[in-house]
Amino acid sequence: MAWTYLFFAGLFEIGWAIGLKYTDGFTRLTPTLLTVASMVVSLGLLGLALKTLPVGTAYAIWTGIGTVGTAVLGIYLLGEPATVIRLVCIGLIVSGIIGLKLVA
User: Fold this and answer.
1) What pTM was computed for the model?
2) Taking Cα atoms as reference points, which of 45, 36, 44, 29 lies closest to residue 15?
3) Which ranges does the record mark as transmembrane (predicted)?
């Protein structure tokens, strides 16, 4: 169950990272409330996952999911560049996430 918590914690991290862009410096109420709620849920789920998973592994995977998801959504939603080197680096992060999962 801890891995499931960690996976969803990572998804909510993506939500709040992308949400920050839409808050417009915390001047827009609805995006701000959704972003803060996503932060709370993400950290709560991470806390549940840390009950049984090693902190270094869980934190690295949590941030990795957030990083990859945010980068991909930045490309898709916000028109950020999808250069070859950027995509290769995203792939390296995914490889690291998979590697950490396999050895944990």
Assistant:
1) 0.88
2) 36
3) 33-50, 57-78, 84-103
| C-alpha 91: how far from chain center | 15
If you ran DSSP here, which 8-state letter would residue 23 be given? T
* DSSP-based three-state secondary structure for 2: helix
* Spatial distance between the Cα atoms of 41 and 9, rounded to a whole number of angstroms: 7
Mind listing the pLDDT tens digit for each residue in 3-45? Answer: 999 999 999 999 999 999 999 999 999 999 999 999 999 999 9
Tell the burial category of 78 from Cβ atoms under 10 Å away from its Cβ (0-12, 13-18, 19+): exposed
